[in-house]
């Protein structure tokens, strides 16, 4: 793969901290540094003690033209730019290679070297390029660590699959320097949805029985909030209409909290005409109590009967507008996932529908991971099991591609 520097203008003058951990792939980091610097980036290199067993700091100093940070207690480093200031300085922190040891420690909040301390002190984007033996990468511990980091917003770039230094063959190779430079360039490019107005719903709704009780569902809102962040990361102006959840809104997202399905319906319909894209991710209650009691209902018998009334269908109402926005709906099913989702998409006039299985396993409500099928007109794509953050990014990419193709 050949990198054309003229195609990497988004990197020019960006401030990047390149973290290097212990592993044979550390030799690729020297080429990565060279390419980033050639593209006009300002790069500072931070090495863990283990990294110095594979490559000398002098190599990175010569390539970057700057001293290399290796020790959190380095008096010279503290007097020039301490680890907090270095974390604030960076537009991006890229750890390449990211060893299994570093990934585990980063996930669990360790700060026993300068690179880990920098990562913990950084409020900006952090990308890691895993590099390790294929069996280490396949272990459940590494898998869980990567899923958790991804769910927190860490960018996971790679790994690649192929022959490894130990002789094994499989996933675990660090991406090549050229591939990582391209990912850095894409990270800094304007988002695919830059300036687009996107309205979306997330979380459950609560339908009051009396002032104390309500009926609801198992939705945590995690998938919707991950989508809101992914859309905002792509430059969209996101308005998130959320049911009751315990999460804070992603940075840059305008959140409106509601409780009932009727409240959510009214809020959506008041704002949808100003939106170019609508994502209906909320698990909206299909029914509400016909007659809500104004006083707490006392226990008076062994059986209590509730009369339910159908709630308005939010996504169908949006799809029925004379000029509807580009609309993505969701289908949570326990069986016949694709069949039911395809029928729902056609019935409700949706551009795309994302279908997933609920009721057990690692997908759907209350899980950190998901697996979905994305269906559209003459379109089908399976997004295999991954963290909801990763799924959200992939889904927003698909949405942006399909939306822009219609413009």
Characterize the structure shown:
This protein has helices at 26-38, 57-64, 75-80, 83-89, 100-107, 114-121, 134-138, 140-151, 177-188, 222-233, 261-271, 314-319, 337-347, 388-405, and strands spanning 15-20, 42-47, 92-98, 126-130, 155-156, 160-163, 169-173, 197-202, 207-208, 214-215, 237-242, 254-257, 277-280, 287-289, 308-310, 326-333, 352-357, 369-376, 379-387. The chain is built from 14 helices and 19 strands. It starts with 14 loop residues before the first strand and ends with a helix. The chain is elongated. Strands 12-11-8-13-16-17-18-19 form an 8-stranded mixed beta sheet, sandwiched between helices. It is an alpha/beta fold. It has 2 domains: 5-188, Flavin prenyltransferase-like (Rossmann fold, 3-Layer(aba) Sandwich); 197-405, 3-Layer(aba) Sandwich (Rossmann fold), CATH 3.40.50. A hairpin with a 2-residue loop joins strand 18 (369-376) and strand 19 (379-387). The longest helix has 18 residues, at 388-405.
How would you briefly describe this protein structure?
The mean pLDDT is 89.
